[in-house]
Input
Amino acid sequence: MGAALARTLHAPFLDGDQFHPEANVEKMRAGTPLTDEDRWPWLEAHTAALTQAAAKKDVAIGASSALRRIYRDFITEKAGEPVLFVYLDGTREVIGERMAKRSHEYMPTSLLDSQFATLEVPDPATENTLHVPVTDSVDKIVRTITGELDHLKSFKRWQ
Ligand SMILES: Nc1ncnc2c1ncn2[C@@H]1O[C@H](COP(=O)(O)OP(=O)(O)O)[C@@H](O)[C@H]1O
Ligand SMILES: O=C(O)[C@H](O)[C@@H](O)[C@H](O)[C@H](O)COP(=O)(O)O
Output
């Protein structure tokens, strides 16, 4: 999804998967959920790379679970510029089915339940978030997001 959006916007795409310390990768591969402590260095590295890419190219696209509100607030604060969180809204069943079909370097489907247990759904009343049904086609999701970008440009909450 993120790659498709980035192609449309001619923007860099940075998948959060690339920014985990090796210890996190091994933990997830072994089927153990990450803790808050495990996630901070990952969020820090991913956000720093996104901020750098956005400084060069105006906008950058990242993909990440960013399950909790404190993680998203951290990303926004550290970026120091408007960040739009696109929440791909889907049931455990749909996401579980897709995960079972995809091939992934380290992420087992068994971690999905703990991810849903940790998830704090972004709140549109207090967060800069756009909710999109994950069952929409990739093209439709890209169109929905690009249609919202003016809102992103005028978002000043952290400035
Ligand atoms: N809108 C969509 N409609 C149908 N299948 C999708 C859609 N978005 C993603 N998928 C499928 O779901 C899986 C995961 O998509 P992806 O965007 O790569 O997410 P992730 O990075 O979380 O794996 C892939 O198998 C992809 O083909
Ligand atoms: O495609 C995926 O399934 C995710 O991108 C995954 O690989 C990611 O790195 C973890 O979701 C991080 O762990 P938490 O979701 O527990 O923060």
Notes: Residues 60 and 153 are 13 Å apart (CA to CA). Residues 36-57 form the longest helix (22 residues). Residues 1, 63, 98, 101-102, 136-138, 141 surround adenosine-5'-diphosphate (ligand 1) (CB under 6 Å).
